[in-house]
């Protein structure tokens, strides 16, 4: 057993058990969690002490004195159909009154909006009235059978994360944390004076774990205490009358409620962002960075480290944004749901170290009689480990109630093994660049700002409609390729970067990840066509480059060799259905899994290499385009086989098939990572079964090997 690089959660009255697990797991830091505290005896143990610090919540004594400074957001009522000239809308219907309270302090006629959703017109303020007693808006001179909505400003009177933890852990009568807005004068003064005194009162704290700073991602609940809307990237909870006035003064124009409501989509990260919304994101980032730097400077002046939790109130920090460096943080910690979230943390620049909070949480929904927490822990570790082999984080840790985990001895034993393995990997390859042949660019509307964050709901969660895309990043996270993220605007302004071998564009039509109306831009389309024609590789997944225009749906249909039938060309015969029974891309594929897949995709001509065709549809194909290639995949949920299929697709698209067997394995369940700087390579078994494989070195030599379940075998050159 080795020691260090592990943070252990603990709690009051758990001293002896904590000492035991510090020794068993080799922990060198102890933390509290939301709902737990560390007593003085635990703080005296020989380990760094992390203390969770809430900047804009958990200060109810202050917040209750200044209800006008509670955080706000814009919300949209149900759509109500007018059947005559008068219609009443109960705009709070479906919202949780424990969390949401309408803003009746500011002038609703100025800050709210009533919209005819049938015509798209804003209803004049003279044609509606507000009944505060009933939380209703009454519209006069309505048009029969038009649908109407109310966009209303509300206070968020219960912090969403504390609410989730409250419900999950059945905290009963525990007080509801009221989030306050540090843009407001009293709140801004309070957060700074409180931290100043807190730093003096907590001399045992070594690391202040900001959870996080000011604004929660957009999350509000329905009247059944269930999530109604959640967007881990949403800026909806940053709005206030003061923010709107400050924005207008700085940017020179005024935002509407609709700029936040966004027809009811609330600027979901799946939507192409408007110019106004991007301006607002920049505006909030500038405020958050400036204010957060002041707090970080105070922490440093007290001799402590400043760590940010990448979650909860993280909005405005944007670790891949242009202002993140200015905050001056020492570290970032975040939840690890798999390889993609591991890389999201590990690749963050401008901090001294990164830390991953692994699953499962030590919560009663997992740690209860009859359940085996090792199953989730093992899956979490093996998926994250693939990414660690490419870019290790610096520390691992866990969260929740240690007393719950302690009741499961076999879980305690397993985490001890994980901790030792992590430390061994880190000691060998931290700051060592792994060998790569290809550089891949993920192309979407967000670009580098949301690196490793595409098709993500919250951490590693996904919806049915997107797991066919989420698997792309999960596969890439542990693959021996270099990954970058570029936006459509980047290409329009500067072209395709010279070092890119393959571009991947993946997503449903009209989403920010496929591109939607970006593909109406002639410069974008012709630039990519030219780049592929001159030797680049392009992989499209789902509905790439899709927008119905000029007689085709995929605007790069001629590159990909396929298009999607929308029902307009059913009269045009489609003769090209012959399948290539053997292909480089599918040499390791035994069964196809395209997830939700994509309906009605067909080959344009005989030059298209159809690799999988069923139910009268193309699901996998390739097409030469000048000196380059386009590859089409209907969907790619994560699996060992699909990861290999994508890996082969990248080499094929880049026309580098001859390099595929260098530093590689024949068994997709095993991966090889080569580190030229230290003249070592690692053979990794990504399963809980014994695996046999042949591996190839850089000279093409073959070696047979058997790897034990989940084994990592290190070899020197």
TrEMBL record:
<dbReference type="InterPro" id="IPR035363">
    <property type="entry name" value="LBP_M"/>
</dbReference>
<dbReference type="GO" id="GO:0050500">
    <property type="term" value="F:1,3-beta-galactosyl-N-acetylhexosamine phosphorylase activity"/>
</dbReference>
<dbReference type="InterPro" id="IPR013780">
    <property type="entry name" value="Glyco_hydro_b"/>
</dbReference>
<dbReference type="Pfam" id="PF17386">
    <property type="entry name" value="LBP_C"/>
</dbReference>
<dbReference type="InterPro" id="IPR029062">
    <property type="entry name" value="Class_I_gatase-like"/>
</dbReference>
<dbReference type="InterPro" id="IPR035080">
    <property type="entry name" value="Lact_bio_phlase-like_N"/>
</dbReference>
<feature type="domain" description="Lacto-N-biose phosphorylase C-terminal">
    <location>
        <begin position="663"/>
        <end position="714"/>
    </location>
</feature>
<protein>
    <submittedName>
        <fullName>1,3-beta-galactosyl-N-acetylhexosamine phosphorylase</fullName>
        <ecNumber>2.4.1.211</ecNumber>
    </submittedName>
</protein>
<feature type="domain" description="Lacto-N-biose phosphorylase-like N-terminal TIM barrel">
    <location>
        <begin position="4"/>
        <end position="436"/>
    </location>
</feature>
<keyword id="KW-0808">Transferase</keyword>
<dbReference type="InterPro" id="IPR012711">
    <property type="entry name" value="Lacto-N-biose_phosphorylase"/>
</dbReference>
<dbReference type="InterPro" id="IPR013783">
    <property type="entry name" value="Ig-like_fold"/>
</dbReference>
<dbReference type="Pfam" id="PF17385">
    <property type="entry name" value="LBP_M"/>
</dbReference>
<keyword id="KW-0328">Glycosyltransferase</keyword>
<feature type="domain" description="Lacto-N-biose phosphorylase central">
    <location>
        <begin position="439"/>
        <end position="658"/>
    </location>
</feature>
<dbReference type="InterPro" id="IPR035356">
    <property type="entry name" value="LBP_C"/>
</dbReference>
<dbReference type="GO" id="GO:0004645">
    <property type="term" value="F:1,4-alpha-oligoglucan phosphorylase activity"/>
</dbReference>
<dbReference type="Pfam" id="PF09508">
    <property type="entry name" value="Lact_bio_phlase"/>
</dbReference>
């Amino acid at each position: 057993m080795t020691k260090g690089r592990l943070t252990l959660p603990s709690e009051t009255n758990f001293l002896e058990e904590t000492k035991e697990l510090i020794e068993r797991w080799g922990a060198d830091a102890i933390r509290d969690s939301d709902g737990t505290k560390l007593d003085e005896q635990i703080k005296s143990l020989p380990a760094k002490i992390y203390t969770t610090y809430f900047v804009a919540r958990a200060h109810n004594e202050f917040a209750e004195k200044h209800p006008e400074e509670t955080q706000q957001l814009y919300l949209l009522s149900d759509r109500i159909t007018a059947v005559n000239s008068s219609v009443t809308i109960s705009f709070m219907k479906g919202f949780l009154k424990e969390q949401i309270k309408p803003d009746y302090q500011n002038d609703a006629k100025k800050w709210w909006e009533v919209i005819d959703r049938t015509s798209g017109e804003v209803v004049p303020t003279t044609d509606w009235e507000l009944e505060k007693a009933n939380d209703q808006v009454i519209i006069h001179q309505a048009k029969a059978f038009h649908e109407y909505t109310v966009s209303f400003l509300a206070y968020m009177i219960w912090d969403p994360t504390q609410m989730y933890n409250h419900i999950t852990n059945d905290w009963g009568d525990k007080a509801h944390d009221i989030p306050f807005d540090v843009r407001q004068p009293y709140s801004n003064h309070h957060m700074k004076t409180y931290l100043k005194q807190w730093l003096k009162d907590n001399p045992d704290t070594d690391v202040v774990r900001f959870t996080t700073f000011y604004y929660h991602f957009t999350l509000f609940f329905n009247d059944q205490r269930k999530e109604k809307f959640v967007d881990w990237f949403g800026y909806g909870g940053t709005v206030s009358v003061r923010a709107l006035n400050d924005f207008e003064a700085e940017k020179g124009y005024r935002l509407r409620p609709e700029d936040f409501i966004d027809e009811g989509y609330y600027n979901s990260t799946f939507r192409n962002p408007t110019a106004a919304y991007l301006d607002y994101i920049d505006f909030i980032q500038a405020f958050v960075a400036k204010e957060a730097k002041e707090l970080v400077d105070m922490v440093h002046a007290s001799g402590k480290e400043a760590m940010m939790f990448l979650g909860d109130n993280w909005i405005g920090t944007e670790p891949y944004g242009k202002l993140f460096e200015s905050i001056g943080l020492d570290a970032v910690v975040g939840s690890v749901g798999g390889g993609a979230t591991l890389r999201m943390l590990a690749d963050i620049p401008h901090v001294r170290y990164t830390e991953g909070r692994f699953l499962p949480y030590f919560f009663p929904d997992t740690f209860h009689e009859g359940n085996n927490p090792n199953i989730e822990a093992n899956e979490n570790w093996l998926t994250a480990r693939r990414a660690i082999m490419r870019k290790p984080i610096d520390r691992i840790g866990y969260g929740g109630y240690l007393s719950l985990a302690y009741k499961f001895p076999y879980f305690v034993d397993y985490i001890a093994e994980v901790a030792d393995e992590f430390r061994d990997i880190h000691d060998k390859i931290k700051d060592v660049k792994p060998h790569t042949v290809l550089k891949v660019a993920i192309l979407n509307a967000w670009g580098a700002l949301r690196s490793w964050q595409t098709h993500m709901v919250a951490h590693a969660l996904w919806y049915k409609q997107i797991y066919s895309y989420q698997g792309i990043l999960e596969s890439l996270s542990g693959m021996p390729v270099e990954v970058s993220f570029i936006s459509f605007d980047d290409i329009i302004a500067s072209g395709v970067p010279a070092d890119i071998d393959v571009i991947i564009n993946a997503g449903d039509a009209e989403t920010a990840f496929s591109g939607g109306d970006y593909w109406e831009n002639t410069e974008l389309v012709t630039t990519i066509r030219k780049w592929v024609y001159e030797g680049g590789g392009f992989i499209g997944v789902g509905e790439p480059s899709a927008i119905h225009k000029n007689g085709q749906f995929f605007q790069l249909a001629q590159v990909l060799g396929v298009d999607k039938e929308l029902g307009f060309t059913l009269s045009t015969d489609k003769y090209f259905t012959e399948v290539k029974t053997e292909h480089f891309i599918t040499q390791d594929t035994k069964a196809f899994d395209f997830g939700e897949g994509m309906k009605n995709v067909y080959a344009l001509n005989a030059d298209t290499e159809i690799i999988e065709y069923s139910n009268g549809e193309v699901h996998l194909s390739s097409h030469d385009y000048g000196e380059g290639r386009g590859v089409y995949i209907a969907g790619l949920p994560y699996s060992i086989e699909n990861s290999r299929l994508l890996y082969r697709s990248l080499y094929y698209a880049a026309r580098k098939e001859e390099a595929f067997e260098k530093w590689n394995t024949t068994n997709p369940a095993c991966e090889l990572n080569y580190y030229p700087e230290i003249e070592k390579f690692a053979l990794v078994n990504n399963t809980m079964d014994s695996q046999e494989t042949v591996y190839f070195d850089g000279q093409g030599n073959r070696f047979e090997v058997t790897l034990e379940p989940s084994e990592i075998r290190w070899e020197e050159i």
